[in-house]
Predict the 3D structure of the following.
Amino acid sequence: MLGTTPVAYLRAIRLNGVRRELLNAAQAGGGVYDIAVRWGFWHFSQFSMDYKRQFGELPSRTLQRARGACGLA
């Protein structure tokens, strides 16, 4: 990623990892908090704001959508 700092780049990598796991957690039964912590996000409100800025929705909404797509809502 050109035009970004190393910290911002690593944050984007981690946020994408969380998103992938949230989309797969619908089948595996994982939760937002556990997945965020696994990817190194300790300040949950900051994580939620960063996630929404990156993807346009809250992480809980991503999980809800994924569960709905799997018929698990």
In short: The chain has four helices and no strands. The mean pLDDT is 89.
